[in-house]
What we know:
CATH superfamily: Peptide methionine sulfoxide reductase
Shape: globular
Strand content: over 45%
Structural class: mainly beta
Number of domains: 1
CATH class: Mainly Beta
Bound molecules: zinc ion
Amino acid sequence: MIFSHFLGVLPFRGGRKQAEMGRLFIEDAKGEKVLMCKGCRVDSASYDDIESKEFQGRYGRAYLFRKVVNIVIGSSEPRFLSSGFHVVNDIYCSSCMQLVGWRYEIAKEESQKYKEGMFILEKERMEKKGG
Length: 131
Ligand SMILES: [Zn+2]
């Protein structure tokens, strides 16, 4: 089910965001300790930008980040999560197009609003560098 969903939104023909970011432009995450995409070892986020490590992703433990790099943002979709109703975008590594997590676009609950514009990265899809 997850796999077919993944194929459904993967921007094979190059979405708007992908065109803006450019296919070959790779940005370095700042800081000593970095999370890299497990698939292609391109930087995904700096530990300096972690908001919380206490999140649950599709594949287990996940981290909440204020900022990520080398990420393509998929289409908006409504999703019921453990913390209530949200509108989220799945996010993909811009280098290898692996699904790596999601972005919170809208949180309905007042207590969850702080997550809007932040990113979940699945620990299972990531590899640590440095630190
Ligand atoms: Zn990758």
